Amino acid sequence: MTEPAKKKVIEVYQDVNVSEVTVQSNEITISSTGVQGPKGETGQTGQVGPQGATGPEGPQGPPGQGATTLSYSFEQQSDSASWSIIHNLGYRPAVTVQDYGKITIEGEINHIDASNLTITFSAPISGYAYLS
Q1: Is the pLDDT of residue 15 over 70?
Q2: Dist CA 110 CA 132 (whole Å)
Q3: Which of 102, 121, 112 is closest to 130 using CA atoms?
Q4: How far is CA 42 from CA 12, 36, 39, 46, 48, in A?
Q5: CB-based contact 96:104 (threshold 8 Å)
Q6: pTM score, two decimals?
Q7: Using alpha carbons only, what angle is made at residue 129 by residues 124 and 132, rounded to the nearest 5 degrees?
């Protein structure tokens, strides 16, 4: 017949954070983590490591599209109260009109479409129209 198991009683008299209890034959070991201590100072930063090798150059990309016209200059040589301008810019540009003396002239601008416009003046005039 086998001996009945003996009970062992352990009393803890303090608040203890028990992290491990080990039982070996007649010996009981209680491990505690205890209270965490204050944080230590930060150490020095280490040296920067060596730079890696540069990789090979990539292949050349495809050729780009040619530059598009961003402006257009028009000259009206004879005096006229209405100028018709075909500029083919593909958009409705801003327009500045100047006479041959480089004085800016106001006129009514009518964009017919993205490539054509007319400028109407109160009196016949000649000069330049700058479109951008």
Answers
A1: no
A2: 15
A3: 102
A4: 37, 17, 9, 12, 18
A5: yes
A6: 0.49
A7: 155
